[in-house]
Design brief:
Number of domains: 3
Number of helices: 18
Distance between the termini: 54 Å
Number of strands: 20
CATH superfamily of the largest domain: Mur-like, catalytic domain
Strand content: 15-25%
Radius of gyration: 24 Å
CATH topology of the largest domain: UDP-N-acetylmuramoyl-L-alanine:D-glutamate ligase
CATH class of the largest domain: Alpha Beta
Structural class: alpha/beta
Largest sheet: 9 strands, mixed
Oligomer: single chain
CATH architecture of the largest domain: 3-Layer(aba) Sandwich
Amino acid sequence: MGKINITIKDLFNIPGATIYNPDVFKEVTNVVIDSRKAKNGSLFVAIKGEKFDGHDFVLTAIRNGAVAVIIDKKKLNKFKLLKIPVITVNNTIKAYGDIAKIWRKKLVAKVICITGSNGKTTVKEILATLLAEKYKVIKTEANNNNHIGVPLTILSADEKCDILVLELGTNHFGEIEYISEISQPDIAVITNIADSHLEFFNNKEGVYKEKSNLFSVTDRRGGTVFINSDDPIIKKGNKYYKNKVTYGFNGTVDIKGKVLQYKDDGKTLIEITAKTKTIKTSLPIYGQSNSNNFLVAAAIALSVGVTPKQIISGTKNIKQVDGRLKVMEFDNNVLIDDSYNSNSTSIQSAIALVNKIKKYDKKLVVLGDIFELGQYSNKIHKRLAQLFYPNKNLIVITIGRMMKVLHNSLIQKKIKSIHFNSREELILFLKYEEVEKSLILIKGSRGMKMEEFVNILETRFAL
């Protein structure tokens, strides 16, 4: 197959587009929104973001080799003297998505899309690692899982790509459907449904309604959906899809997982059975939630022809993901970095891992607020107290206005808890309090910037 390119006909197919200077059009071989990444053959799309307006960098992009630009039609007067094709549109972000959809149709790669309340990034990383045993894989990098990041990833794939693994995120209705329509998945999975973004989705059913748009788009194009049968909300909806594969640790499913052993360090020995195929391997990542993540990644890998032997080999290359149940061992401490984000389900998973790691009896759990819960915030933070029981070796540290609700509930249950009203006080505690021979968990929502506390402890323990 030849190199993928954008033609003049493709540009005319962008809804609402007007093309100026089409007679001097040159072949477009890549699409960029960062003028610094423009090169000979680039199409530059001027997107206005929170900090920068791409229209301010159009000339830079051209100097770097861009052979065409897409701009907001309101900006035409500023660029009417340009001698290259100028495409004006009503919305450059929407046009960027339209270009990505055109590009996706030209790819021979199989497209796999992953969404869900928890585990999206970890499943994506595990799956890409397993697939790499057989295929050339392009995956979502960093946190590029929204209406701009997904097109960015699609446009990074070329004709040599065998499989494109996309992570899809959302915090408002309509976003999953929009990016799913751009992605046109061959395979889709919703990892689970939890109390995430309730401020926007109202309840778990609202979360599923938004996430399930991925399944609907996949099903309409004849793709395959992977159903987590251990999640009651996802399982309930599986009857609507023609091509489906069920997986889980419980009940009758197409691909079944079984935890054979939890080791004292929290790692897992797992067995997966799929018809006549069996995989038995020790995971280099921690906790039941990561067993779930590995199960679906292995299930998808099997479905596209990766052999059990290749999956076992690829498992050895799986890396812990920063901020997501990453376990770090030091001379006198174990630190669990689960700081990337938070909801009640992921807190439950993190506490379960804390309880499974037996290296130290003394446990310190540091929790920051869960965001985007709306009217349910007080109730959900208070309910977290059910995860803890009186234990002389346990201290629960809380920070944030809503975590004080949990702190008060824990005190009522006679569970040792300390609440900090300021980050400065907590930083001093973590720097100087006697915490040797302890296991410490750090977890909270993105906006709480819990990674700062992780960094403080890493620095302290590394000395």
